[in-house]
Design brief:
Strand content: 25-35%
Strand order of the largest sheet: 1-8-3-4
Number of strands: 8
Structural class: alpha+beta
Helix content: 10-25%
Order of helices and strands: EEEEHEEEEH
Oligomer: single chain
Radius of gyration: 22 Å
Distance between the termini: 27 Å
Shape: globular
């Protein structure tokens, strides 16, 4: 089994670059100067049967190109090959969504090779990365939510082929 980090084709943002004027992540961000959250309607004000109000959007997971330092695993990550998984070679590209604390919150399967990634292998990869600890990505020295694209490859040899090749 192999894990390879898939480079983001977009260039990495320099640490001094302002990313988005509306997204102030710089050292001059004053959290105390922010206005208090607006008082929303109480649950008693919400009519029964009416659609629920839209939740506040969460901060985005930034791609590698917007980070001054990308996320990295805190230790080697070994992907297990489940006993009941089919024999062969399978490759897929995954995106990990890593929060500002280095915790993988979600794993998305982006693409798989022509044979597809069998469900047992996809689940093994997902569970392994959800349990892995990362150093979070940063923008100007501040930990932020980030995305990390990786390529995983599962490969085994067919025992019948192995014994046949050793008999030659």
């Amino acid at each position: 089994m192999a894990v390879r980090w898939v480079p983001d084709p977009r260039p990495t943002a320099p640490a001094s670059k302002t990313i988005d004027p509306g997204l102030n992540l710089g050292p001059d961000l004053d959290l105390d100067a922010l206005p208090p959250p607006a008082a929303g309607p109480s649950p008693r004000d919400h009519p029964i049967g009416a659609p629920e109000p839209e939740p506040e959007p969460e901060p985005p997971y930034l791609p590698r190109s917007l980070l001054s330092r990308g996320p990295s695993p805190q230790q080697a990550i070994d992907l297990p090959y489940p006993d009941l998984a089919p024999i062969g070679r399978f490759r897929a590209v995954l995106t990990l969504f890593i929060d500002e604390h280095g915790v993988v919150q979600r794993v998305r399967l982006d693409e798989a090779d022509d044979t597809g990634l069998p469900p047992l292998l996809a689940d093994a990869a997902r569970q392994t990365f959800l349990q892995s600890a990362f150093t979070p990505g940063e923008v100007e020295g501040r930990p932020v939510r980030s995305q990390l694209r990786i390529e995983v490859e599962f490969a085994t040899e067919d025992p019948a082929q192995t014994s046949a090749s050793t008999r030659r």
